[in-house]
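Anyone up for a design puzzle?
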């Protein structure tokens, strides 16, 4: 047999691996260690990334009776390491959320288990071999791996997101050595890695050798006790494991490189500490020498405190977690993510004022935490445990079966192993403040044990486990080591009543505001609650990025993204993986811009004649050096003037007042946009719109009225009215109560209209849309009962229509009484009083759709923009006179859905020569799109959309909010359309 069957044996988790210890990279010289920019610079770091020989076998059965030497000669392909097979053309992509991808029969996995055999060589000299021991490190292999050196099996390991280390010393020879690694797609660990993601395999994180001194320290801890009152820290180096006693010395440098302390004591005191926070990520360099090895640790001094009365604090100041859940996922490389890309993501998070990360749902590569220390994030580090699939077994009670494995002592070791491998390597990391026992695995004695083990490993940091929510009712579940109560997607009311009014522990949302598709619309509501209750320490949005696979490329060579089911997989969860704040290629979703606005560090308001600027950061001082402030004055949405503002200094958590010189302007709505610019990136940091004088808004001059001395000539039969003037020709359908055509100077401007209640369902309409379909909102038939035409003046004709909209086989949805007034100067006023049938579900929208034929795709609007906005998702938008195009108004969700709505609009024009204008005293919202609502409802991927001949303009008097019901609570009633009377009034000018 090629290998012993460890992969279906939960008593054999790791064979011949080294004991877990803190992550570090030794150097052979102190200066070198201090100066190194990356670990590759260590002379004993032997990078094994790069191309390896590779053979993929769709079933392990094909090679079980071969021997490794034979197999090593049979390679015909190469594969980059790190990578996942599925992104390199092997096997197939598969996305499943809760359901296990394999038959549930632990510890057994399919006999036809796909495998990849990786081989490469490396050369070691006599000198390298005699001076060092050599250890082989894998930072992530999915799902398990066997390792051979020179055809001798060295060992085995599993836990996809854990570091495994093998001591190769006894197996190596001078000169060329052959390293082979057999990776299996499935193993007994698969039952513990049921995370909601694409299931990918292979050596997906770095591999390297480290030369270690024969006499060495294997494991050490840097304890820090930081007293923020005294700005003093006590540092203690604890040796946990060593192969021999070696001498020790240390030197500590500040960020500028100035020596602060040095000596040979394992404990020392530091004064005048420059402390670390996510806002001010100041890192010292601690150089350690253990015998012949030098290690440079970057550490920050900080103190986290947590209790139910004051919540979470850092260095004595209240800290709310404005966090995000982050999976490792890129469309081209899948779960394999380079540090450059991690940095790119983290910088993007910083730019959007995210201050915390939950490493959902597994630990990251060690270098990731160094980035978090450097850039400043609070990290909730999660163990690689998810057993969610037990709730989908047949007829065992769904969620009532959650605790099946959590409470089965056979699996205690498996869970403890996973929890400790997420803690032990990272106990010296500055940014980690709390350990999470895993995700969605139920509760029971194994997690009680895991929590106590986590406490023993690190009594200082806090412990989290949301699965406690599934603890047995009527059972004495142990929660003394649980530092917080945690929930995902509860309603606000539930949070308040069950956890906040009389809190027993601090409370956190490990997931909320599910950012799937168009949304989330409830960020502000959660934030209000967090601010209201000290015990509510914050939360993490689900989630950072859309997960995708690349299906092909378009003509511009841009990738076309796919999701579950697009790779031919039978069991999948569709686009449920498209739920990030950024698109797969890191284009920003509007939801992230809303988040950014909500957590803007600078707030502005007007008090009497002053502009008050408030700094809500606890540790950052803003000055003219690091913050530029621009004041843009707008009258009726148009910029009249702008100036820069000198702020001198705004201390943390404080305000300044600046006298306001209000420009002298005529009548109208005077507003101030306060825009601050990011200290480093020069990007917009925060933007706030303030209204100075609430006066009647003046409609812009581009909403011009025309004059005409024409008169209407009228023809009618039972089917239609025809109105004719010198320039205009109108056909009105008496059977549908709608416009058939509107022609100006022989050019068609409008070629049809209809009332619309339907919107292309957004992901957050996932549940409610069933009732919309049931109620037939998508297939409403207009029925006209009565039409009447009255020529009020020679220039003005009024058509009244009594009608309803009724779906096939259902009752009336809405009754309408509409007056269409046609003027010879090109105006059409439309006024409707509608009665919604309250037996019916709440409406997605109430609006009029017009098929317009503009000459260009230019759009100008006086309303909320520039980003799409809805009643509950409009934080990032502001009121102004915007000029854009139909193409730019489209928000390209990977799975098409309602998008690009703009509320609070007073005027709108489309086309170059002001082809269609709509204005009203009551603001409306509009969409103008190259895609019909039907297309957006039915097409599965954005790259499959086909532009229609002419755009569709929809003017809504009502448009429902978006919420986050794709996984979160139902849309707040405030944002639903469930009133009985719906009024609609607009005027078009053609
Ligand atoms: C949670 C889970 C996440 C993800 C999310 C839905 O229940 O913890 O992993 O599945 O729901 O997108
Ligand atoms: Mg899950």
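Challenge accepted. My sequence:
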């Amino acid at each position: 047999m090629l290998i012993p069957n460890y992969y279906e044996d939960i008593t054999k988790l790791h064979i011949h691996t080294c004991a877990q210890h803190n992550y570090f990279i030794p150097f052979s010289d102190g200066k070198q260690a201090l100066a190194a920019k990356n670990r590759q610079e260590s002379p004993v770091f032997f990078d094994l990334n790069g191309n390896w020989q590779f053979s993929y076998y769709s079933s392990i059965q094909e090679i079980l009776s071969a021997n490794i030497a034979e197999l090593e000669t049979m390679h015909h392909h190469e594969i980059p390491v790190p990578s996942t097979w599925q992104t390199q053309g092997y096997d197939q992509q598969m996305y499943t959320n809760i359901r296990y991808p394999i038959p549930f029969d632990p510890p057994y996995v399919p006999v036809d288990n796909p495998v990849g055999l990786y081989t490469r060589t490396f050369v070691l000299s006599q000198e390298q071999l005699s001076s060092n021991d050599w250890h082989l490190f894998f930072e992530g292999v999915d799902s398990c791996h066997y390792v051979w050196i020179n055809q001798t099996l060295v060992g085995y390991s599993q836990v996809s997101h854990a570091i495994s280390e093998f001591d190769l010393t006894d197996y190596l020879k001078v000169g060329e050595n052959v390293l082979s690694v057999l990776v299996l797609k499935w193993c007994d660990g698969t039952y513990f890695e049921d995370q909601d993601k694409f299931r990918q395999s292979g050596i997906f994180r770095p591999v390297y050798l480290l030369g270690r001194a024969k006499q060495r320290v294997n494991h050490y801890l840097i304890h820090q006790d930081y007293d923020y009152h005294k700005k003093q820290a006590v540092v203690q180096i604890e040796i946990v494991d060593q192969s021999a006693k070696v001498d020790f010395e240390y030197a500590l440098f500040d960020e500028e490189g100035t020596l602060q302390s040095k000596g040979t004591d394992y404990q020392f005191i530091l004064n005048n500490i420059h402390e670390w926070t996510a806002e001010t990520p100041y890192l010292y360099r601690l150089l350690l020498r253990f015998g012949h090895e030098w290690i440079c640790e970057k550490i920050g001094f900080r103190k986290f405190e947590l209790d139910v009365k004051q919540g979470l604090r850092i260095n004595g100041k209240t800290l709310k977690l404005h966090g995000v859940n982050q999976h490792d996922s890129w469309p081209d490389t899948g779960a394999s993510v380079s540090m450059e890309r991690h940095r790119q993501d983290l910088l993007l998070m910083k730019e959007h004022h995210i201050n915390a990360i939950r490493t959902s749902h597994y630990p990251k590569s060690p270098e990731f935490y160094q980035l978090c220390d450097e850039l400043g994030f609070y990290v909730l580090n999660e163990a690689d445990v998810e057993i969610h699939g037990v709730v989908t077994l047949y007829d065992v009670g769904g969620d009532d079966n959650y605790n099946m494995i959590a409470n089965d002592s056979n699996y205690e070791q498996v869970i403890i192993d996973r929890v400790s491998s997420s803690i032990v390597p990272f106990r010296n990391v500055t940014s980690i403040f709390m350990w999470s026992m895993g995700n969605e695995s139920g509760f029971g004695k194994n997690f009680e044990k895991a929590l106590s083990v986590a406490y023993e490993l690190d009594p200082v940091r806090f412990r989290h486990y949301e699965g406690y929510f599934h603890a047995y009712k009527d059972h004495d579940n142990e929660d003394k080591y649980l530092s917080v109560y945690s929930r995902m997607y509860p309603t606000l009311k539930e949070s308040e009543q069950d956890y906040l009014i009389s809190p027993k522990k601090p409370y956190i949302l490990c997931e909320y505001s599910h950012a799937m598709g168009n949304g989330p619309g409830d960020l502000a509501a959660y934030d209000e609650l967090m601010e209201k209750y000290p015990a509510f320490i914050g939360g993490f949005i689900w989630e950072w990025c859309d997960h995708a696979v690349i299906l092909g490329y378009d003509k511009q060579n841009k990738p076309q993204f796919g999701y579950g089911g697009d790779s031919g997989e039978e069991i999948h969860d569709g686009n449920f993986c498209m739920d990030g704040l950024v698109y797969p290629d890191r284009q920003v979703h509007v939801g992230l811009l809303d988040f950014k606005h909500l957590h803007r560090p600078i707030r502005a308001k007007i008090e009497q004649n002053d502009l008050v600027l408030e700094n809500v950061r606890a540790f950052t001082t803003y000055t003219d050096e690091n913050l530029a402030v621009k004041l843009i004055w707008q009258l009726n949405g148009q910029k009249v003037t702008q100036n820069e503002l000198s702020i001198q200094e705004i201390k943390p958590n404080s305000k300044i007042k600046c006298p306001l010189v209000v420009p002298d302007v005529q009548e109208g709505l005077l507003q101030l946009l306060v825009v601050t610019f990011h200290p480093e990136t020069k990007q917009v940091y925060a933007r706030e719109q303030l209204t100075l004088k609430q006066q009647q808004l003046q409609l812009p001059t581009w909403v011009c009225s025309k004059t005409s001395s024409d008169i209407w000539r009228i023809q009618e039969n039972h089917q239609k009215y025809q109105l004719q003037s010198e320039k205009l020709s109108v056909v009105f359908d008496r059977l549908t109560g709608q416009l058939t055509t509107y022609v100006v100077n022989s050019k068609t401007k409008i070629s049809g209209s209809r009332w619309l209640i339907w919107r292309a369902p957004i992901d957050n309409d996932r549940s409610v849309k069933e009732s919309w379909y049931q109620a037939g909102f998508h297939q409403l038939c207009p029925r006209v009962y009565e039409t009447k035409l009255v020529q009020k003046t020679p220039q003005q004709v009024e058509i009244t229509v009594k009608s309803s909209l009724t779906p096939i086989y259902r009752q009336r949805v809405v009754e309408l009484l509409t007056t269409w007034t046609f003027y010879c100067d090109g105006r059409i006023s439309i006024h409707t009083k509608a009665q919604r049938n309250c037996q019916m579900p709440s409406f997605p929208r109430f609006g009029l759709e017009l098929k317009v034929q503009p000459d260009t795709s230019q759009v100008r609007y006086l309303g909320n923009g520039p980003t799409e906005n809805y009643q509950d998702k409009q934080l990032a938008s502001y009121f102004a006179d915007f000029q854009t195009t139909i193409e730019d108004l489209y928000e390209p969700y990977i799975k098409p859905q309602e998008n690009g709505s703009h509320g609070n609009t007073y005027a709108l024009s489309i086309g170059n020569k002001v082809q269609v204008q709509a204005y009203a005293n009551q603001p409306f919202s509009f969409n103008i799109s190259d895609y019909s609502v039907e297309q957006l409802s039915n097409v599965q991927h954005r790259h499959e959309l086909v532009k229609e001949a002419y755009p569709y303009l929809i003017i809504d008097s009502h448009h429902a909010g978006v919420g986050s019901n794709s996984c979160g609570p139902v849309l707040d009633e405030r944002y639903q359309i469930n009133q009985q009377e719906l009024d609609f009034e607009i005027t078009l000018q053609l």
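A detail worth pointing out: The two ends are 82 Å apart (CA to CA).
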